[in-house]
Amino acid sequence: MAVPKRKVSKARRDKRRSSVWKLDAPTLVKCPQCHELTAPHKVCGTCGYYKGVQVIKKEA
């Protein structure tokens, strides 16, 4: 059975644990058409444009 040779220090243990629990804020970019915040590489939910082309028809 595998047994650790040395005790893991509190600093090393906490450094390992700290990176797992951090949350990242979602990346948001402005739509070039309507200037609303949207997720990158996705169709804008407000105006329906993607890369300057209307993909989804939205009623005004």
From TrEMBL:
<dbReference type="GO" id="GO:0003735">
    <property type="term" value="F:structural constituent of ribosome"/>
</dbReference>
<dbReference type="GO" id="GO:0006412">
    <property type="term" value="P:translation"/>
</dbReference>
<dbReference type="GO" id="GO:0015934">
    <property type="term" value="C:large ribosomal subunit"/>
</dbReference>
<dbReference type="InterPro" id="IPR002677">
    <property type="entry name" value="Ribosomal_bL32"/>
</dbReference>
<keyword id="KW-0689">Ribosomal protein</keyword>
<comment type="similarity">
    <text>Belongs to the bacterial ribosomal protein bL32 family.</text>
</comment>
<dbReference type="InterPro" id="IPR011332">
    <property type="entry name" value="Ribosomal_zn-bd"/>
</dbReference>
<dbReference type="InterPro" id="IPR044957">
    <property type="entry name" value="Ribosomal_bL32_bact"/>
</dbReference>
<protein>
    <recommendedName>
        <fullName>Large ribosomal subunit protein bL32</fullName>
    </recommendedName>
</protein>
<keyword id="KW-0687">Ribonucleoprotein</keyword>
<dbReference type="Pfam" id="PF01783">
    <property type="entry name" value="Ribosomal_L32p"/>
</dbReference>
